[in-house]
Each structure stands twice: as structure tokens, then as C-alpha cells.
């Protein structure tokens, strides 16, 4: 109603001079008119200018005198023609009214004050104070002298009245249509978006308060893993290539081209770019030779190795592809013992369930040195996992194309009261290392595990989709413990 009144008035008139007067004329609350004017001004329907007026309002004491009369008038009317004793007058009026009334009445020369008796000095008086207070209450104006007198007695106080003068704005319309905030599919299908009025962006509006960030459990366990590797003297490998060639991901690791893991059902191959452009040709030739006919005491796989298979690009299935690149680069220099580790994402074309995702994080560590044995690998694994709180380990023989011997790693979990598989390990095969150019006495021991498995154990999560992906509960991220010490 208020908005219709403002817009309708401006349709026929140039300006609303005073919103207060306008509100009285329309019979609408001024507060309601002000709210509408502010809203219309924000959307440029109108242009509003502030109006400020100083008004006077009655104090609590002034309201009492406006209703009951001033103390001096009350005192004068309480004195009978024959006079009255001061004690009786006080009893009749009260100490407060008597004190104020007698002071003001004497100043007005209305009374004859004796030591014990009070009498009237004049026959009739008018209560001008009450009359002025009533005028203030009714919004009438008083002279400067009267205002000063009432103000001095603290019967009135100033009040700043705020209103607006209003005229048409650049977006004025007799009726406001609510601007749309979203462009929907239905708007596009019907074509009514052409007629829609959209809400403008307010670039000065403040957004929601920024809350402090929270570390994801995966990040905390990753940090813990990295600190363990660094404490053990390892260097981090660069893992920024999510896209890898089949050569570094499979062939350089002595994994045959007919291996099931190289099928599209298990690996994400890229459509564009589908193949790699550069590979170290002399090394490629040595890898081809070891696959086809063996060497260095190996019989190889005895098949026709195809370069086009090695050139195929894919999303890396393990960070061991990074290890193959690092070891090849290391073999091109005078030999130096090294310890490398990596923690990063890998991708596999697997069915998603409560314990598997198509992408996850792999933790990998390797040591390259002369004369390493399986006993060295087991000793390093005991050291590594004991730092995670798992001192009870078991090893089970396993098969990997690029390690021999190979071992699955099991740790006893005190909370679950059972043995849990926690990783895989082995010694890289000569068929992988010697074509790179390493001396024959150089050995590489390595192990790997997922980041998600130990994190789920630490934080009591039994569904990996609650830990990683779009279904993660943000409450878990905000409320999880600062740290977890040990896996058991």
C-alpha cells in the first residue's frame, strides 16, 4: 500500500516534498513510508534526499506536569484563601512538589511565605507551564524564550526527526516488478528471459563472514607420512604429471603389454592427446629387447613388443611411474645412493564401492644402493611402520611384474584385534634396473600403500566415500581431532 502510494503520487506529481507530511495525508505510518522510500531508492526507482528537523519532546517529568499541572500551580491551588500551615501543605502535596512548587511560586510572586504559614499573594493565576507542555506534546511551536525556560527546567529534550524528499529516479515505473535473481532452464525454453528484469549485482555488498579453514584428515595423515620420510632421510619426488605414457607407467617397469592391468577396463586412456611425442630412444630400444628376448640372465616375455602400445597416454595408475623416471635419470649420472618418496594421486578404472574409488592417493618409498637385500627391506619397513604406531608386522609372498621377491605387508591392529593389509613391497627386478644403466650390484628396495587406508583406520571411517569425494560431510572436516598418534 505504501509503495503504491509513493509511486502513484510521483506519476502525477514531480516531487514528494516532505515524507512526514505525505504520510499524514495518506494516513500511513511514516516508518512504513520511510522503509518503502529506502527500498525504491536502492533500486533507483526514486531519488531520495534526507530531511532533518529538530523537534522537542517531553521528558518524563514534563509528561507528569502536562497531565497534572505544574508544581507551582498545584501548590497555589492547594492554599485556601485563609492560608495554610507549611506542615499541612507539605503533607497535602508531598515533599517534592512542595519544594519545586514553592520555589517557582515565590519566583512568580504568587505567595506570602511566613515562618509557619503560607497564604496567597494574588487571587488568580494561570498554569502557563502546563499549557506550553501541552503545545509541545501536540507538535505546536513555541517562542525561543519559552523553549529556553522549559529546557532549563529539564521538562523537554531535543529530538531529531528524519524524513525524505523524493522525486523520480532513472528506473522509475508506476509499478515495480520484482527483479529476477536466477536465469532458469524454463526461462530459456519459454523465451521469456528476453522480457525479464534482472537484479543488478551489488559489488559493495558484504559477503558472509569468512570462517577459519579446517584441515582434512587426509592432509593431516599425509603430513604425518611426509614427516616420517623426512626424518628417515628421504627426498620427495616430483609428482606433478597426472598424465603419463604407457612406456613409463608399464613398459619401463618390465610389465608386459598383454598384462590385464593395461586393458581399458582397468586403466583410463586419454583420447586427446592420445600418444606421447618424446621418449629416450636408446632406452626404449633396450626396454624392447628385454621384453622380447630378455638379457642379463632373463629370458624376457618372448613376444613382439609394439611401440604404439608404449606411446599411449593414460592417467597414471601408480606413482611407480614417477619412480621409473627418477631411477632412469639417476642411472645417467655417476652412481649415488638415494632415498626417494612420493605421496600423490593415482587413477584406476575400478568399480566404486565402500573401500574403492577410481582415484586415490598412493604413498611410495624407495632406496637405491649397492648390495641391498630383502633383510634391508624388512628392516626399513619395521622402522617406517613403527613410526606410525604399528610394530607388529607380517609379510606374505606376492607377485608384482617389476619386483622380485615381492611381499604384501600386514600389520596387527589392536583396535580391530586382527591383521590388516597395509601395503605392498619388493625389490625391483634386474630386468627393470639394468636397461636403465645401473651397475649390476645396485639394488632398489621399495614399498607402497594408500593414504586413504591408514586415514580410515585412524579416524574410524568405514566408507571411503565419507572421506574423499563430493559426499564428504563437512562437519567431519571441522570436528575431527587435531592429530592422531599411532595407528594402533
TrEMBL record:
Q: Which InterPro entries match?
A: aa-tRNA-synth_II (IPR006195), aa-tRNA-synth_II/BPL/LPL (IPR045864), Phe-tRNA-synth_IIc_asu (IPR004529), Phenylalanyl-tRNA_Synthase (IPR002319), PheRS_DBD1 (IPR040724), PheRS_DBD3 (IPR040725)
Q: What is its EC number?
A: 6.1.1.20
Q: Where is it found, in Gene Ontology cellular component terms? A: cytosol; phenylalanine-tRNA ligase complex
Please indicate which superkingdom the organism of origin belongs to.
Answer: Eukaryota
Q: Which UniProt keywords apply?
A: Aminoacyl-tRNA synthetase, ATP-binding, Cytoplasm, Ligase, Magnesium, Metal-binding, Nucleotide-binding, Protein biosynthesis
Pfam annotation, one family? PheRS_DBD3
Which is a GO BP term held by this UniProt record? phenylalanyl-tRNA aminoacylation
Q: Show which residues constitute the signal peptide.
A: none
Cofactor needs = Mg(2+)
PANTHER family the UniProt entry points to: PHENYLALANINE--TRNA LIGASE ALPHA SUBUNIT, PHENYLALANYL-TRNA SYNTHETASE
Output this protein's name: phenylalanine--tRNA ligase
Amino acid at each position: 500500500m505504501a509503495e503504491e502510494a509513493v509511486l502513484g503520487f510521483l506519476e502525477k506529481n514531480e516531487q514528494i516534498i516532505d515524507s512526514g507530511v505525505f504520510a499524514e495525508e495518506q494516513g500511513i505510518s511514516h516508518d512504513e513510508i520511510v522503509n518503502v522510500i529506502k527500498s525504491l531508492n536502492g533500486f533507483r526507482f526514486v531519488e531520495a534526499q534526507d530531511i532533518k528537523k529538530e523537534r522537542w519532546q517531553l521528558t518524563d517529568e514534563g509528561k507528569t506536569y502536562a497531565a497534572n499541572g505544574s508544581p507551582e500551580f498545584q501548590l497555589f491551588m492547594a492554599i485556601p484563601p485563609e492560608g495554610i500551615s507549611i506542615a499541612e501543605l507539605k503533607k497535602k502535596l508531598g515533599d517534592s512538589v512542595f519544594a519545586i512548587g514553592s520555589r517557582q511560586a515565590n519566583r512568580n510572586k504568587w505567595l506570602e511565605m511566613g515562618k509557619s504559614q503560607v497564604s496567597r499573594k494574588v487571587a488568580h493565576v494561570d498554569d502557563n507551564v502546563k499549557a506550553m507542555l501541552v503545545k509541545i506534546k501536540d507538535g505546536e511551536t513555541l517562542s525561543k524564550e519559552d523553549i529556553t525556560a522549559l529546557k532549563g527546567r529539564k521538562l523537554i529534550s531535543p529530538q531529531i526527526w528524519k524524513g525524505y524528499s523524493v522525486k523520480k529516479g532513472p528506473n522509475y515505473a508506476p509499478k515495480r516488478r520484482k527483479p529476477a535473481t536466477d536465469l532458469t532452464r524454463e526461462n530459456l525454453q519459454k523465451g521469456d528471459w528476453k522480457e525479464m528484469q534482472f537484479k543488478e549485482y551489488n559489488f559493495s555488498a558484504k559477503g558472509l563472514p569468512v570462517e577459519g579453514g579446517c584441515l582434512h584428515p587426509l592432509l593431516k595423515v599425509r603430513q604425518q607420512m611426509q614427516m616420517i620420510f623426512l626424518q628417515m632421510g628421504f627426498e620427495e619426488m616430483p609428482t606433478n604429471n597426472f598424465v603419463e605414457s604407457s612406456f613409463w607407467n608399464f613398459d619401463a617397469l618390465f610389465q608386459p603389454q598383454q598384462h590385464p592391468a593395461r586393458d581399458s577396463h582397468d586403466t583410463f586412456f586419454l583420447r586427446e592427446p592420445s600418444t606421447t611425442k618424446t621418449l629416450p630412444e636408446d632406452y626404449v630400444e633396450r626396454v624392447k629387447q628385454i621384453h622380447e628376448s630378455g638379457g642379463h640372465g632373463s629370458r624376457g616375455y618372448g613376444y613382439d613388443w609394439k611401440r604404439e602400445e608404449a606411446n599411449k597416454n593414460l592417467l597414471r595408475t601408480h606413482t611407480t611411474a614417477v619412480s621409473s623416471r627418477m631411477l632412469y635419470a639417476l642411472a645417467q649420472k655417476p652412481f649415488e645412493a638415494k632415498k626417494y618418496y612420493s605421496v600423490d594421486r593415482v587413477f584406476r578404472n575400478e568399480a566404486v564401492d565402500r573401500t574403492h574409488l577410481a582415484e586415490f592417493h598412493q604413498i611410495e618409498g624407495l632406496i637405491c644402493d649397492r648390495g641391498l637385500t630383502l633383510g634391508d627391506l624388512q628392516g626399513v619397513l619395521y622402522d617406517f611402520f613403527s613410526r606410525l604406531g604399528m610394530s607388529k608386522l607380517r609379510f606374505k609372498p606376492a607377485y608384482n611384474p617389476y619386483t622380485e621377491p615381492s611381499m604384501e605387508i600386514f600389520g596387527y591392529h589392536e583396535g580391530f584385534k586382527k591383521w590388516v593389509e597395509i601395503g605392498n613391497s619388493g625389490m625391483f627386478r634386474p630386468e627393470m634396473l639394468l636397461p636403465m644403466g645401473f651397475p649390476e650390484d645396485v639394488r632398489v628396495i621399495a614399498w607402497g600403500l594408500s593414504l586413504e587406508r591408514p586415514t580410515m583406520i585412524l579416524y574410524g571411517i568405514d566408507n571411503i566415500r565419507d572421506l574423499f569425494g563430493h559426499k564428504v560431510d563437512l562437519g567431519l572436516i571441522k570436528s575431527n581431532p587435531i592429530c592422531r598418534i599411532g595407528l594402533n
